[in-house]
Design goal:
Number of strands of chain B: 0
Strand content of chain A: 25-35%
Strand order of the largest sheet of chain A: 1-10-9-4-3-2
Distance between the termini of chain B: 7 Å
InterPro entries (chain A): Rieske_2Fe-2S, Rieske_2Fe-2S_sf, Rieske_Fe-S_prot, TAT_signal
CATH architecture of the largest domain in chain A: 3-layer Sandwich
Number of domains of chain B: 1
Number of helices of chain B: 2
Order of helices and strands of chain A: HEEEEEEEEEE
CATH superfamily of the largest domain in chain A: Rieske [2Fe-2S] iron-sulphur domain
Number of domains of chain A: 2
Distance between the termini of chain A: 63 Å
Largest sheet of chain A: 6 strands, antiparallel
GO molecular function (chain A): 2 iron, 2 sulfur cluster binding; monooxygenase activity; oxidoreductase activity, acting on paired donors, with incorporation or reduction of molecular oxygen
Structural class of chain A: alpha+beta
Radius of gyration of chain B: 15 Å
Largest interface: A-B, 23 and 34 residues
CATH topology of the largest domain in chain A: Rieske Iron-sulfur Protein
Number of helices of chain A: 1
Largest sheet of chain B: none
Shape of chain A: elongated
Number of strands of chain A: 10
Radius of gyration of chain A: 32 Å
Oligomer: heterodimer
Pfam family, one (chain A): Rieske
Helix content of chain B: over 70%
CATH class of the largest domain in chain A: Mainly Beta
Structural class of chain B: mainly alpha
Protein name (chain A): Ubiquinol-cytochrome C reductase iron-sulfur subunit
Chain lengths: 174, 63
Amino acid sequence: MSDKNNKIPFNEDNYTHNIERNNERKLDRRGFMKTLVGAAGVFAVSSLPWGAVAAKELMGLGEKEYPHKKITEVSNLPIGDAVEFKFPGDHDDAILIRLSENKYVAYQNACTHLRCPVFWVKEQGEMICPCHHGKFDVETGAPTAGPPRRPLPEIQVKVENGSIYAVRVKRYEA
Amino acid sequence: MKRKYLGVIILAAILMMNIVFTQYMVHQYYYENYENVLIFGGLNIVLFPLAVFAYKKTINMRA
Protein backbone atom coordinates (compact mmCIF):
# COMPACT_ATOMS: atom_id res chain seq x y z
CA MET A 1 0.00 0.00 0.00
CA SER A 2 1.31 3.37 -0.90
CA ASP A 3 0.72 6.13 1.60
CA LYS A 4 -0.41 8.69 -0.91
CA ASN A 5 -3.89 8.59 0.63
CA ASN A 6 -2.70 9.00 4.22
CA LYS A 7 -3.04 12.80 4.28
CA ILE A 8 -6.00 14.37 6.00
CA PRO A 9 -8.20 15.08 4.20
CA PHE A 10 -6.88 12.45 1.88
CA ASN A 11 -7.10 12.86 -1.82
CA GLU A 12 -9.61 10.25 -2.72
CA ASP A 13 -9.02 8.86 -6.16
CA ASN A 14 -11.17 5.82 -5.96
CA TYR A 15 -14.11 4.49 -4.05
CA THR A 16 -12.61 1.24 -2.93
CA HIS A 17 -10.19 2.39 -0.21
CA ASN A 18 -12.34 0.76 2.41
CA ILE A 19 -12.15 -2.62 0.77
CA GLU A 20 -9.45 -5.17 1.39
CA ARG A 21 -9.01 -5.85 -2.29
CA ASN A 22 -7.02 -9.00 -1.85
CA ASN A 23 -9.80 -11.17 -0.57
CA GLU A 24 -12.94 -9.27 0.17
CA ARG A 25 -14.22 -9.10 -3.37
CA LYS A 26 -12.81 -12.35 -4.57
CA LEU A 27 -16.04 -13.59 -6.09
CA ASP A 28 -18.52 -10.77 -6.29
CA ARG A 29 -21.43 -10.66 -8.68
CA ARG A 30 -19.45 -8.86 -11.35
CA GLY A 31 -16.62 -11.38 -11.27
CA PHE A 32 -19.09 -14.23 -11.39
CA MET A 33 -20.80 -12.72 -14.42
CA LYS A 34 -17.44 -12.26 -16.12
CA THR A 35 -16.78 -15.96 -15.56
CA LEU A 36 -20.12 -16.81 -17.13
CA VAL A 37 -19.36 -14.65 -20.18
CA GLY A 38 -15.94 -16.30 -20.45
CA ALA A 39 -17.55 -19.73 -20.33
CA ALA A 40 -19.89 -18.69 -23.15
CA GLY A 41 -16.80 -17.66 -25.11
CA VAL A 42 -15.19 -21.04 -24.50
CA PHE A 43 -18.32 -22.75 -25.81
CA ALA A 44 -18.32 -20.53 -28.88
CA VAL A 45 -14.67 -21.24 -29.66
CA SER A 46 -15.00 -24.96 -29.02
CA SER A 47 -17.87 -25.26 -31.49
CA LEU A 48 -15.71 -23.88 -34.31
CA PRO A 49 -13.86 -27.14 -35.11
CA TRP A 50 -17.16 -29.06 -35.19
CA GLY A 51 -18.53 -26.55 -37.65
CA ALA A 52 -15.34 -26.84 -39.70
CA VAL A 53 -15.47 -30.63 -40.01
CA ALA A 54 -19.21 -30.51 -40.71
CA ALA A 55 -18.65 -27.96 -43.49
CA LYS A 56 -15.90 -30.17 -44.86
CA GLU A 57 -18.28 -33.14 -44.95
CA LEU A 58 -20.97 -31.04 -46.61
CA MET A 59 -18.59 -29.93 -49.32
CA GLY A 60 -17.86 -33.58 -50.03
CA LEU A 61 -14.18 -33.51 -49.17
CA GLY A 62 -14.64 -36.54 -46.91
CA GLU A 63 -15.79 -38.76 -49.81
CA LYS A 64 -12.35 -39.10 -51.22
CA GLU A 65 -12.18 -41.06 -54.43
CA TYR A 66 -8.99 -42.94 -55.08
CA PRO A 67 -7.79 -43.79 -58.56
CA HIS A 68 -9.51 -46.99 -59.65
CA LYS A 69 -7.28 -49.97 -59.23
CA LYS A 70 -7.53 -53.22 -61.09
CA ILE A 71 -7.68 -56.17 -58.72
CA THR A 72 -7.93 -59.17 -60.98
CA GLU A 73 -9.71 -60.67 -63.97
CA VAL A 74 -13.14 -62.19 -63.45
CA SER A 75 -11.93 -65.38 -65.15
CA ASN A 76 -9.16 -65.81 -62.57
CA LEU A 77 -11.55 -65.80 -59.63
CA PRO A 78 -13.92 -68.78 -59.32
CA ILE A 79 -17.11 -68.39 -57.30
CA GLY A 80 -16.37 -68.73 -53.60
CA ASP A 81 -12.73 -67.82 -53.89
CA ALA A 82 -10.92 -64.80 -52.53
CA VAL A 83 -7.99 -62.76 -53.66
CA GLU A 84 -5.91 -60.33 -51.65
CA PHE A 85 -4.92 -56.94 -52.94
CA LYS A 86 -3.78 -53.53 -51.75
CA PHE A 87 -6.15 -50.58 -51.67
CA PRO A 88 -6.03 -47.60 -51.55
CA GLY A 89 -2.37 -47.43 -50.50
CA ASP A 90 0.39 -49.95 -51.05
CA HIS A 91 0.28 -50.95 -47.39
CA ASP A 92 -3.49 -51.22 -46.96
CA ASP A 93 -4.29 -54.90 -47.20
CA ALA A 94 -7.66 -55.78 -48.64
CA ILE A 95 -9.51 -58.90 -49.68
CA LEU A 96 -11.96 -59.51 -52.51
CA ILE A 97 -14.41 -62.39 -52.26
CA ARG A 98 -16.62 -63.63 -55.08
CA LEU A 99 -19.82 -64.82 -53.46
CA SER A 100 -21.82 -65.67 -56.58
CA GLU A 101 -21.80 -65.13 -60.31
CA ASN A 102 -22.22 -61.36 -60.03
CA LYS A 103 -21.78 -60.66 -56.34
CA TYR A 104 -18.42 -59.46 -55.13
CA VAL A 105 -17.53 -58.08 -51.73
CA ALA A 106 -14.29 -56.44 -50.74
CA TYR A 107 -13.02 -55.27 -47.36
CA GLN A 108 -9.90 -53.81 -45.93
CA ASN A 109 -8.89 -56.95 -44.12
CA ALA A 110 -6.92 -55.58 -41.19
CA CYS A 111 -8.88 -56.93 -38.23
CA THR A 112 -10.56 -54.12 -36.31
CA HIS A 113 -9.25 -55.62 -33.09
CA LEU A 114 -5.45 -55.60 -33.48
CA ARG A 115 -5.04 -55.37 -37.25
CA CYS A 116 -4.13 -58.97 -37.98
CA PRO A 117 -4.98 -59.96 -41.57
CA VAL A 118 -8.46 -61.42 -41.82
CA PHE A 119 -8.78 -64.27 -44.32
CA TRP A 120 -11.66 -66.02 -46.03
CA VAL A 121 -12.56 -69.59 -45.09
CA LYS A 122 -14.53 -70.93 -48.02
CA GLU A 123 -15.74 -74.10 -46.28
CA GLN A 124 -17.23 -72.25 -43.31
CA GLY A 125 -18.35 -69.22 -45.27
CA GLU A 126 -16.75 -66.90 -42.74
CA MET A 127 -13.99 -64.36 -42.54
CA ILE A 128 -11.68 -65.28 -39.70
CA CYS A 129 -8.92 -63.42 -37.94
CA PRO A 130 -6.28 -65.98 -36.90
CA CYS A 131 -4.89 -64.01 -33.96
CA HIS A 132 -7.84 -64.18 -31.59
CA HIS A 133 -10.46 -66.04 -33.61
CA GLY A 134 -12.46 -62.97 -34.48
CA LYS A 135 -15.10 -63.66 -37.10
CA PHE A 136 -16.75 -61.31 -39.57
CA ASP A 137 -19.92 -61.63 -41.59
CA VAL A 138 -18.95 -61.86 -45.22
CA GLU A 139 -22.04 -60.01 -46.50
CA THR A 140 -21.64 -56.89 -44.39
CA GLY A 141 -18.22 -57.04 -42.75
CA ALA A 142 -19.87 -56.86 -39.34
CA PRO A 143 -18.11 -58.70 -36.51
CA THR A 144 -19.93 -61.86 -35.43
CA ALA A 145 -17.57 -63.45 -32.90
CA GLY A 146 -14.41 -62.83 -30.95
CA PRO A 147 -12.85 -59.59 -29.75
CA PRO A 148 -13.49 -57.21 -32.69
CA ARG A 149 -16.40 -54.83 -32.15
CA ARG A 150 -16.31 -52.73 -35.32
CA PRO A 151 -17.05 -53.81 -38.90
CA LEU A 152 -14.37 -54.09 -41.55
CA PRO A 153 -14.28 -51.06 -43.86
CA GLU A 154 -15.98 -52.05 -47.09
CA ILE A 155 -14.48 -51.34 -50.48
CA GLN A 156 -16.77 -50.70 -53.44
CA VAL A 157 -15.86 -52.71 -56.49
CA LYS A 158 -16.80 -52.39 -60.13
CA VAL A 159 -16.71 -55.00 -62.86
CA GLU A 160 -15.79 -53.72 -66.28
CA ASN A 161 -14.80 -55.65 -69.40
CA GLY A 162 -14.06 -58.80 -67.44
CA SER A 163 -11.85 -57.06 -64.90
CA ILE A 164 -12.61 -56.15 -61.31
CA TYR A 165 -11.69 -52.70 -60.09
CA ALA A 166 -11.59 -51.23 -56.58
CA VAL A 167 -13.38 -47.89 -56.65
CA ARG A 168 -13.52 -46.42 -53.16
CA VAL A 169 -13.52 -47.19 -49.48
CA LYS A 170 -16.97 -46.82 -47.98
CA ARG A 171 -17.41 -44.47 -45.08
CA TYR A 172 -17.29 -46.12 -41.70
CA GLU A 173 -20.79 -46.35 -40.35
CA ALA A 174 -21.35 -46.91 -36.66
CA MET B 1 -27.92 -4.01 0.15
CA LYS B 2 -30.56 -4.97 -2.32
CA ARG B 3 -29.33 -6.49 -5.48
CA LYS B 4 -30.77 -7.40 -8.83
CA TYR B 5 -29.70 -10.76 -10.06
CA LEU B 6 -31.26 -10.36 -13.50
CA GLY B 7 -27.88 -10.30 -15.24
CA VAL B 8 -26.74 -13.46 -13.48
CA ILE B 9 -29.99 -15.19 -14.39
CA ILE B 10 -29.72 -14.17 -18.04
CA LEU B 11 -26.10 -15.29 -18.25
CA ALA B 12 -26.90 -18.59 -16.56
CA ALA B 13 -29.70 -19.13 -19.09
CA ILE B 14 -27.29 -18.37 -21.95
CA LEU B 15 -24.81 -20.84 -20.54
CA MET B 16 -27.55 -23.46 -20.27
CA MET B 17 -28.42 -22.88 -23.93
CA ASN B 18 -24.73 -23.21 -24.76
CA ILE B 19 -24.62 -26.62 -23.12
CA VAL B 20 -27.80 -27.76 -24.88
CA PHE B 21 -26.63 -26.54 -28.29
CA THR B 22 -23.21 -28.12 -27.87
CA GLN B 23 -24.80 -31.44 -26.95
CA TYR B 24 -27.09 -31.20 -29.99
CA MET B 25 -24.20 -30.23 -32.23
CA VAL B 26 -22.05 -33.20 -31.23
CA HIS B 27 -24.92 -35.65 -31.51
CA GLN B 28 -26.03 -34.33 -34.87
CA TYR B 29 -22.45 -34.67 -36.07
CA TYR B 30 -22.42 -38.35 -35.24
CA TYR B 31 -25.85 -38.77 -36.82
CA GLU B 32 -24.25 -37.17 -39.91
CA ASN B 33 -26.79 -34.33 -40.15
CA TYR B 34 -24.12 -31.82 -40.97
CA GLU B 35 -26.51 -28.93 -41.69
CA ASN B 36 -27.78 -29.16 -38.11
CA VAL B 37 -24.19 -29.17 -36.85
CA LEU B 38 -23.63 -25.86 -38.63
CA ILE B 39 -26.90 -24.42 -37.29
CA PHE B 40 -26.16 -25.29 -33.67
CA GLY B 41 -22.51 -24.33 -33.96
CA GLY B 42 -23.63 -20.95 -35.33
CA LEU B 43 -26.10 -20.54 -32.47
CA ASN B 44 -23.32 -21.32 -30.01
CA ILE B 45 -21.14 -18.63 -31.53
CA VAL B 46 -24.00 -16.09 -31.61
CA LEU B 47 -24.60 -16.69 -27.90
CA PHE B 48 -21.16 -15.30 -26.99
CA PRO B 49 -21.71 -11.69 -28.16
CA LEU B 50 -25.17 -12.00 -26.67
CA ALA B 51 -23.58 -12.87 -23.34
CA VAL B 52 -21.20 -9.92 -23.57
CA PHE B 53 -24.15 -7.66 -24.39
CA ALA B 54 -26.17 -8.99 -21.45
CA TYR B 55 -23.19 -8.46 -19.16
CA LYS B 56 -22.68 -4.86 -20.23
CA LYS B 57 -26.39 -4.06 -20.02
CA THR B 58 -26.90 -5.44 -16.54
CA ILE B 59 -23.57 -4.70 -14.84
CA ASN B 60 -24.54 -1.18 -13.78
CA MET B 61 -28.01 -2.02 -12.58
CA ARG B 62 -27.93 -1.17 -8.90
CA ALA B 63 -30.37 -1.43 -6.04
